[in-house]
Structures are given as structure tokens and as C-alpha cells.
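Supplementary Methods, section 5.1.

A reviewer requested that the exact input to the structure prediction be made available. We therefore reproduce it here, unchanged from the version used in the analyses.
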Amino acid sequence: MNSRYQTAPIADYRPRASGRSKLNFEKDAKALLFAFGDDKDPLPGTVRVLDEIMTDYILEVCHKAAAYASYGRRTKLKVDDFKFAVRKDPIKLGRIQELMNAAATLAKARKVFDPKDDSFGAAQQILMEETEAKPKDGKSSKGRRSGLAGNKVGKRIGRPPKSAM
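The structure derived from this sequence is encoded cell-by-cell as follows.
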């Protein structure tokens, strides 16, 4: 077999060690159980089972993302690999996109208010660019509705229709 067609090895799935293992999401599992109607202090067995379920799900998604990266002959994972791994669940995919948009917005805000730069000239320039890019009438210069480019008119991904609100 030619070496250039070999893919990167994928880590083998190893089951949890038997006996007492460290809980990764103990506080989160307790809060989640309480939010869904369980007691304020749930049984340790319930917390352990929910922790194992959450850990197994995260491992499964990471292994799927690693497999997709190896199909592309890459050894490093990208965010797109995780998006592809959860592509069949629109709620999770929408949440990933929301978090990525929020991270980009925060990065832009940090860039605007850089403490190393004493002048606000750069901040004013960025704000001016943003206001020029967004027309006041809500339509882009190409005649498309902003925020819905590429989608069917009136359809929003990951949100219920306006009539349901």
C-alpha cells in the first residue's frame, strides 16, 4: 500500500475503568437534574450515570470529528469537523453556530476597546465601517434580505416561524 494514501490513525475507544472513576461533570449533572425536577441533592448513582452518559457522548462526537478529519488527511481537528459530526441535529448545529458568532462578536469588541491603544480612532473607524455596511432600511445593496441570504424567504434556521411566537 502506498504511504500517501494512508490516513491518520484514529484513537481507539477504550471503555471506562471499572470501579470508582473521577466524575467529570458532577456539578453540571446535579444542576441539570435539579433543573429537570429532581431533588436538590440527587442520589450519587444518578449523578454518576448521567456523568457517564455525558462523557460518552462527548467522546463519541470527538471520535466522529477525528474520523472526519482523517478522511481529509488531517491530524488536527477543526471546528468544521465538529459541525460535520453533529450535522444531522439542527438544534446542536444551530447552537454551535450561535456560540461561534458570539465568540466573533466578543473578539471584535475586544479589538475595538484595546487597552494598549489609548486613542479611540481605531474604534471609531470600525464603528463607522459597520454602520456603512448595514443600510438603515434593512436591505443589502444586492436586494437580498439581510440575514436570510441563501435561505428561502422567511425561513430562519434553528428558530420557529414568526407566527409561532
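The mean pLDDT is 77. These observations are discussed further in the main text.
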